[in-house]
Write a structure and sequence with these properties.
2 strands
Length: about 80
């Protein structure tokens, strides 16, 4: 009888890959002032389209955007986020 040593295999998850199914399929427009509050305190936010959720991820350039939020945002007058 003989024994063999198998090569070491790294089974840790790759930090660059999402290993959870909670990744949003699209991102929504939300008031800037509410994003940090939600991320820190876990409060729910309301998107322009009316969807309510806690902020758990931040959108990166090129991320898919909710078509309803985008349409509403583009129809808003230009200006700052006062509240």
């Amino acid at each position: 009888m003989s024994t063999t040593t198998l090569p070491e295999v790294d089974t840790r998850p790759d930090p660059t890959e999402s290993t959870t199914d909670d990744a949003p399929d699209k991102f929504h427009y939300v008031k800037k002032s509410k994003i940090t509050e939600s991320a820190v305190l876990g409060n729910m936010v309301v998107a322009l389209c009316g969807e309510t959720f806690p902020v758990t991820k931040s959108a990166k350039p090129g991320s898919p955007v909710c078509p309803q939020c985008k349409e509403i945002f583009e129809g808003l007058p230009k200006g700052g986020d006062d509240s």
